[in-house]
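I am sending you the entry underneath: sequence plus fold tokens. Let me know what the token row says about the fold:
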Amino acid sequence: MDKLKAIQYFLAAAQTGSLSAAARQQGMTLQAVAKLVSALEAELGFKLFQRGSRGLQLTTDGAQYAEACAPLLAQLQAAEEGLRQSRQRPQGNLVVGGTPFLVQHCIVPALAAFHASYPDMTLDLRTVLHLEEAASMECDLLLLHGWFEAGSWVRRELPVMAQVTAATPGYWKRYGMPRHPRDLVDHNCLSYRNPYGKLLDLWRYRQTAPQGDEVIEQVVVQGWLNSNHRDNLLALTLGDGGVMRIAYATAQADLASGRLVPALLDWELMDPPPLALYFRPELRRTLRLRVFADFAATLCAELATLTIAKGESSVDGRPAWHHGNSRRASSWLTHR
């Protein structure tokens, strides 16, 4: 007797309530299923089912045996599936959308190494700013920076990337480096307009005083250039044109080379946008999606450790200025 098959048929019959349904489920004949279940009962020395006019009913012993066998069979099937997948090579096309600067500065530099590990996969990178836009519907997986409702997507939150206030050495030499967040009102601060059209002109800073008290400074910044594309702001900043807040991980080359110099390092920039992966529920077990999601998550986690984000941000824990329909984050100060 194939005992594993017998247990499999027994559990199928217990689940469906009939031997014939179990046979259909298992793709076997009724005679084959009935023969193995009977052989299992004979070996155990007790009845697993009561057979009557109402169909199959588990006996007390049968119910106890099913409760013990079901998790063991599930573990065995999971082990077999894991072994099969470990021998598989992910292949096929994966459409990946994301916030442009994240894709450009975090993902693309590491793609050659990813391709070397998974040569049978092809990637189609798309620019996507938020979940509601039409372009997102063509993607299998999204890497987005910002506060979004997941809706029908599965969300996998990633570590927050801390931000710094930065400008070029030439700019700081000409206009002076701020010693306190309030000094920024005298600078050309370049603000980002988020995907929902809100200008992020309220820069909030936090510092722990020597006596342990928390100090928060909120600065309404102004500048002659605002943009919904981060690289426009970066280009002007690198041209000695102004000050911007930027995720350290996405500007590490400019910061390491000294082309950008951070200021106010004794203050923590608050409200760093959350970072998350979004993917379709029906694809969550797809091997090619899983390996890319793990690659992106590991990479972003490593980049997030370049600086320590003292505060945590989450998709649900939005800052107060994020709510409402005002076009500027600073409007929150006058309406609270």
Notes: The longest helix spans residues 60-87. The two ends are 75 Å apart (CA to CA).
